[in-house]
Design brief:
Elements (H helix, E strand, L loop, with lengths): L1 H26 L11 H12 L21 E4 L2 E4 L4 H4 L2 H9 L8 H26 L4 H13 L2 H6 L6 H15 L4 H5 L1 H11 L4 H14 L1 H26 L17 H10 L5 H4 L4 H11 L6 H18 L19 H16 L3 H24 L25 H16 L1
Antiparallel strand pairs: 1-2
Helix pairs in contact: 1-5, 1-6, 4-5, 5-6, 5-8, 6-17, 8-10, 10-12, 11-12, 11-16, 13-16, 15-17, 18-19
Length: about 425
């Protein structure tokens, strides 16, 4: 009994540390790295608190939505965000608390956004730790890989730095996975609520969570209806918002448009290996995750759920590679694949004993890759942006530069960081 209490205390202490330390690192300097894409998310909490609605008319008295930015347009007599609104809604608790204590939420809008997104990233880190514990990994390994999650991925360099949809999506996925792996049926059922929220927040995330539903349908059929019922809550909200603000259920709560291309052969390797956007470049420790996925998941006796998740990953990869701007526009790293970080960490844990732990050289290799993962995402969090996306030309019209080895985003950021260090000393 004493040993059990000590074990629980250890997990509690680790959980607190995994929340507090990343959060303090994330908010350091209140450095915000949003873009035109995130403006609607940054403003929404103010609109909800001040007027209780989802439009932005109060921010544009002239009625010209172009004054606000390209993510706004008129719909049914209102100025609305063409992006899904769940991310902006996630800011409400922080903005409301700040408003209650007398902080000017309009003046401090960007610092409050940083606090909100950093809280979600830190909470996701704690959830990642407990997901691994529920999968019966040791406390030490679970804690270490939660650190990898928090410091060696875009969780630090992108999702905690701006009000992108990716941060809340990762939080929803972590919450859903934590509940999905529960032995309690009631807790399991509520995984559907968070999986559905992830889709409402970013519809393409359906490719990530669909495998959980397929697995439940075929392998836990008696629990499938429970999973679906809780999913209907976010879906009902999406239906209401789509009809009320866009006039159509088919809008899926947004007014974005895009097009597919017919050249997947550049994007498929690009999302994995491009020096400017590759998953395995910006977080090279995920090489072991991909190795586990390729060699173990589809082998005889492989985990069925992991097979479904892997198929979802490959389908997502294909969809993004035939979508215009497969590289995610002007951003840092593998932004489009960032929602797969929790699954990559889970696969890393599964492959640890087989591919990392057994030999000295693999442990040394992992240590080097871990250092590089942390350093690269440190550059993204602390130094980014460089002028890579626009100089000597715009990558939107010259995406061949995304394959340049001698002149990459990371090299430019490294040079900028070294220059700053030299100036200090």
């Amino acid at each position: 009994m004493t040993l059990l209490r000590d074990c629980r205390k250890t997990k509690i202490v680790i959980s607190v540390a995994l929340f507090v330390i990343p959060f303090l690192v994330y908010i350091q300097g209140f450095r915000y790295l949003g873009s035109g894409d995130t403006v609607g998310n940054e403003l929404l909490a103010i609109s909800l608190i001040r007027e209780g609605n989802f439009d932005y008319n109060e921010f544009c008295p002239s009625g010209d939505e172009e004054e606000l930015g390209y993510v706004f347009k008129w719909s049914r007599g209102r100025i609305v965000n063409i992006c899904p609104i769940v991310t902006g809604m996630m800011n409400v608790p922080v903005f409301l608390a700040a408003d209650v204590v007398g902080i000017d939420i309009e003046e401090k809008i960007l610092p409050l956004n940083i606090v909100s997104m950093s809280l979600l990233a830190a909470l996701s880190t704690v959830l990642m730790f407990h997901i691994l514990l529920r999968k019966r990994f040791s406390t030490g390994l679970s804690a270490f890989l939660a650190v990898v999650f928090a410091s060696g991925t875009l969780v630090w360099s992108v999702t905690a730095r701006g009000t992108w949809q990716h941060g809340p999506s990762i939080f929803f996925l972590c919450a859903g996975m934590f509940l999905f792996f529960s032995e309690n049926r009631r807790a399991f059922a509520w995984a559907g609520f968070f999986f559905a929220l992830m889709c409402v927040n970013r519809p393409v995330n359906g490719l990530i969570v669909l495998p959980f539903y397929v697995y439940t349908l075929f392998h836990r059929r008696k629990d499938f209806l429970l999973l679906v019922l809780t999913s209907l809550i976010p879906v009902a909200f999406l239906a209401w918002y789509s009809l009320e603000y866009w006039g159509s259920l088919l809008s899926l709560g947004q007014g974005q448009s895009g097009k597919f291309t017919t050249d997947p052969w550049l994007g498929i390797p690009g999302l994995l290996f491009s020096p400017a956007r590759g998953l395995l470049v910006f977080t090279p420790v995920f090489i072991f995750s991909i190795l586990y996925m390729v060699k173990d998941v589809f082998s005889k006796g492989g985990n069925i759920l992991y097979r479904y998740l892997s198929v979802g990953f490959f389908v997502t990869l294909i969809i993004y590679t035939i979508w215009e701007r497969w590289y995610g526009g002007h951003c840092f790293g593998y932004r489009y694949l960032s929602e797969y970080i929790p699954i990559m960490v889970l696969f890393l844990a599964e492959g640890w004993n087989r591919y990392v732990k057994p030999k000295v050289w693999t442990r040394v290799l992992f240590g080097i890759l871990f250092f590089l993962s942390v350093y690269f995402n440190f550059l993204g969090a602390v130094v980014f942006p460089s002028d890579f996306n626009t100089v000597p030309n715009n990558i939107d019209y010259n995406d061949d530069r995304l394959w340049t080895i001698e002149d990459t985003e990371l090299l430019r950021l490294n040079d900028m960081f070294v220059e700053r260090l030299l100036k200090r000393f």
